[in-house]
Amino acid sequence: MLVLWLSSVLSALIALGLTAYLRSEHAWLRLLDHPNERSLHQIPTPRTGGLAILAGSLAGWLFYAFFAPLPIGFFWLLAALALVAGISLLDDWRHLGVGPRLLIQALAALCLLPAGMLPLEFGFNGMMLPLWLLLALSLVGVVWMINLYNFMDGMDGLAAGMAVIGFATLAWLGISAAQPAFALFCLSIALGSAGFLYFNWPPARIFMGDVGASSLGLLVAVAILWAHQAQILALWLGMLIFSPFVVDATVTLVVRMVQGKRWWQAHREHGYQRLARCWGHRRTLFLAYLLMFATSLSALCLAQAPAQYWLWVGLMAWLFIYALLAVLIAAVWRHAKDRVST
Fold first, then answer.
1. pLDDT single digits (tens) 35-45
2. For the chain: N or C, fewer Cβ within 10 A?
């Protein structure tokens, strides 16, 4: 436990120090995010903070590896992370098209197969899915998680806050399940994100960029799959923890597709973006954090439920809550537009 906490504190300190350096004018890599019609910020801001999160997390993992073994497939996990981080950093620099990014992300998802992260059997109500279908769904799910986390990185403190709360919850579950390697993996990411969040708190002095958001999306997928494989947490409960991002991004994408819009292009139609434009950053961020804490606490409680029945009751309850939130956000948005038009 001492090594676990020392490793995690190291992650936070390195992420904090490197973020401070990357936001300075003397940083060796200085990529700026210039405001446009979709932006919520007003001045050019560095977008390389994701490198600090990755460096902090990696430092914690390597420090831990000196004292305790990491899973055999951890090399493949690092290879997947290198692919996603590399293509995302290149996209931050050169603005690549969708095709090259999806191709590399798919290759990264494939790396999780030899890493032992992709489930080889999964069923529902006694019926097992065919292996080919399970693998296809897993690969699509990983690629979607990479992109949806990137889509949700559009407001100061939001993506980093989700990482801190979500991965800290998973780390607690790992400690409770006597799975120190999993707990270390998640806690290092949580504290590395916390070190970055200090400078990303609104008004942000640095952004994580695609290199940070896409990499965190991959790490979320890995953590959920790892927890499922190690029987730490049911797959659906892992999704519940990060459901504030999963639901907003997925529902927005489906609505844009139904409306015949160019769903692959950047936009300002996410629920959090509309609330931020109506209520401001800090108020929206506070409500988002409340939602994140609520889903994480629910997952912790449901993980201890004595019967499978309560799992489905909890998930149905959250479907109702999200439907209600969608109605409320739509009402707030309509009211704001009507007030502007008059």
1. 666 555 567 88
2. C
In single-letter form, the type of residue at position 89 comes to L
* Whole-Å CA distances, 101 to 1, 4, 92, 214: 38, 34, 12, 10
User: Tens digits of per-residue pLDDT, 180-232?
Assistant: 999 999 999 999 999 999 999 998 999 999 999 999 999 999 999 999 989 99
* Residue 82 CA, distance from chain mean position: 17
Provide the token pair at 172. 């607690």
